[in-house]
Amino acid sequence: MSGTHTVISNKISMLFGSEISLKDFSFSQLIVAVKNLFDTEGVPGFVKALVILIESLLIKSGVECPHCGKDKHHLHSKSDRKLKTSIGEVNLALTRLLCISCKKTFNPMAQLFDLDKYSRKSREFEKFALETVTDQSFRRSATVINKEAGFETAHSTLHRWFWHTDAVNINQKKRVDFLIADGTGFKRSKDNEFDTNKGSIKVLIGYNKNGEVIPFGAWTRASWKDIGKLIKSKNHPSDKIKFKPIAGTLITDGEEEIVRQLKKLAESHQRCLFHMTHELTPLLRYKDIVQKTKQ
Ligand SMILES: [Zn+2]
Fold first, then answer.
1. Domain limits at 248?
2. The predicted structure's pLDDT at residue 104
3. Which of 109, 152, 192, 258 is the most exposed place for a label (fewest CB within 10 A)?
4. What pLDDT is stored for residue 284 in this prediction?
5. Domain shared by 47 and 95, yes or no
6. How close is the Cα of 286 to the center of ligand 1, in Å?
7. How crowded is residue 147: how many other Cβ atoms within 10 Å of its Cβ?
8. Would residue 84 count as lying in a domain?
9. Which of 86, 115, 144 is where one domain is finished?
10. Domain tally for the chain?
11. Ligand 1 center–CA 108 separation, angstroms
12. In whole angstroms, what is the distance from residue 258 CA to residue 262 CA?
């Protein structure tokens, strides 16, 4: 991002924000500034300016320190945060506040937007990626089921199911004939040089011989270990009883880590080669991590 762009974007946010003197401000100035912003930075630049505005409103309305709950703070610093989004890379300038009570710093916008401390991608981008990959996974699963189990399941059925499923109400306490585990990576920007630039998406779907489809979930940040543990715990009422596998056959592409973490869930394991398709049909629900549940 060039210096000129940043200057324009900052000017616009000044127009939006409280820093400008309103008596020197005209409607035509706003029009010209917004047009310049769009011409040079497009929608991401506009988003940046909007975020600065929202941030100033948020801080003015009063924010509590997430560490101690007090609401008195000083400005600590401004920092740039690049985020991959579906409209392109957005370069946010976020404010860090210093809590007067506990002397810890926090970032009010990151909290509002649910951005991780080190996250360089928006959840919205993750969701987009997940939707894409889950769709591919459904298509693959449908193909595998047709081939291996001898009954037809159109991937559109899987979609319809996802459409009508409230992710919160997915019932993971189920026994199924087939359990299909599928993971696919997607590219994201690197957080630092040691980081891998691969995110991953993991999908777990159950099928029964009668054609019934049972969703177990889709995750963007959970490990196979977490997922295996979660499904096991949902189906294991007490440690005093021996855990009984919840599926007849586990179907995977043979990836070692998946097999290692999930084989306990099924009586047998079968390796299948999935064939990738590249169609984009979003509209799925997802969870990003395995939540700790009360059960
Ligand atoms: Zn505090």
1. 124-271
2. 94
3. 192
4. 30
5. yes
6. 33
7. 9
8. yes
9. 115
10. 2
11. 12
12. 6
CA of 105 to the centre of ligand 1 (A): 8
Between the CA of 101 and the centroid of ligand 1 the distance, in Å, is 5
Does 105 share its domain with 136?
no
Q: What pTM did the predictor assign?
A: 0.45
pLDDT digits (tens, 9 = 90+) for 224-256: 999 999 899 888 888 888 899 999 989 887 788
Residues within 5 Å of ion ligand 1, judged at the Cβ atom: 65, 67-68, 99, 101-102
Instruction: State the distance from the centre of ligand 1 to the C-alpha of 113, rounded, in angstroms.
Output: 20
The SS3 call for residue 141 is helix
54-57 long-range contacts, CB within 8 A, separation 24+ = 54/109, 54/112, 55/94, 55/95, 55/108, 55/109, 56/16, 56/17, 56/18
How far does the centroid of ligand 1 lie from the alpha carbon of residue 63, in Å?
11
Give every residue of the chain whose pLDDT is below 50, as ranges.
1-3, 18-20, 161, 163-169, 187-189, 191, 197, 274-289, 291-295
Domain boundary among 72, 98, 115: 115
Inside any domain, residue 292: no
How many angstroms separate the alpha carbon of residue 81 from the centre of ligand 1?
23
Identify the pLDDT of residue 159: 52
